[in-house]
Amino acid sequence: MSYREEKFLSFKKSDLIPKLSYMDEMSAEDIADLFKELLDEGIYGFCFSLYEEGQGPGDIIPREQIARRMEIVAPHTTSIRSFSCTDGNELIPQVAKEFGLKTLVGAWLGDDEEKNEEEIQNLIQLAKDGYVDVAAVGNEVLYRNDLTEEQLLEKIAYVKNELDGIVPVGYVDAYYEFVHRPAITELCDILLCNCYPFWEGTSISDSFHHMRQMYYQVKNVANGKEVMITETGWPSKGSPLGGAVPSKENAIRYFINANLWSQDEDIDIFYFSSFDESWKVGAEGEVGAYWGIWDKNGKLKY
After folding, report:
1. Buried b (16+ CB within 10 A) or exposed e, 275-285
2. At CB < 8 A and 24+ separation, what contacts does 176-183 make?
3. Do the Cβ atoms of 123 and 85 come closer than 8 Å?
4. What angle do CA 163, 113, 199 make, to 5 degrees?
5. pLDDT, tens digit, for every residue of 111-163?
């Protein structure tokens, strides 16, 4: 029996909801051991962090850099999520397949229609070439108000028609969008929801319960469709947001809780994120740069 099974057998296949309080009785060494075992056994998925120091969206990233980062992540997961199909991002699913990983591949949509068309056509071609297991048409487009719901529905329908059932097609956004927009929920083959207790100011002690509530809000409107958590995580550094406090201790606890739940209830989660990325400071402040399990240099943080 493994360390995790011995310590947490009472939580597996039971009606109990794991809570962070069970780790309050563990030493820092025991928590570190549990984290290491989970990572070594492998979690379902990681959001793939593409950019190294000094790089950001718009930079053309070479295959060698992607392969170098993929080699670090691949032993610890079964699946990789990518966010775009241009500027080198289209190489991510190709490299992932070389490492034997499954892929969730996204076309990044914004307010530039020419770029949107390039993203969509590349996604379709990648899927037809066998590099895609799940296709995502857009990421938080409605949250950013880059497209109207009608424009987005048209693009999702177009990709579904072009792929004709080759792979399931969905759209990624905050969990509540699927509750509030039944037309999107109806059109998607699979519901791809982002669940972030941190960004709603939830304390670490309540974070697991909140994340679980987010998931089941989508599950309750899914009409039997698969629901996948495409992003969830906790930052290790930065300014607090309400009751949500970034720290290494909180980040490791959140990682453990989310992935124990993922395994025990067979719920697919893409953890955000694989590596720290400094460019995100511009959009999110200091906290944006510290969501990785590995730091910006590829060193395991915990």
Report:
1. bbbbbbeeeee
2. 176/214, 176/217, 177/142, 177/143, 178/217, 178/218, 178/221, 178/222, 179/217, 179/218, 179/221, 181/142, 181/149, 182/221, 183/149, 183/153
3. yes
4. 85
5. 999 999 999 999 999 999 999 999 999 999 999 999 999 999 999 999 999 99
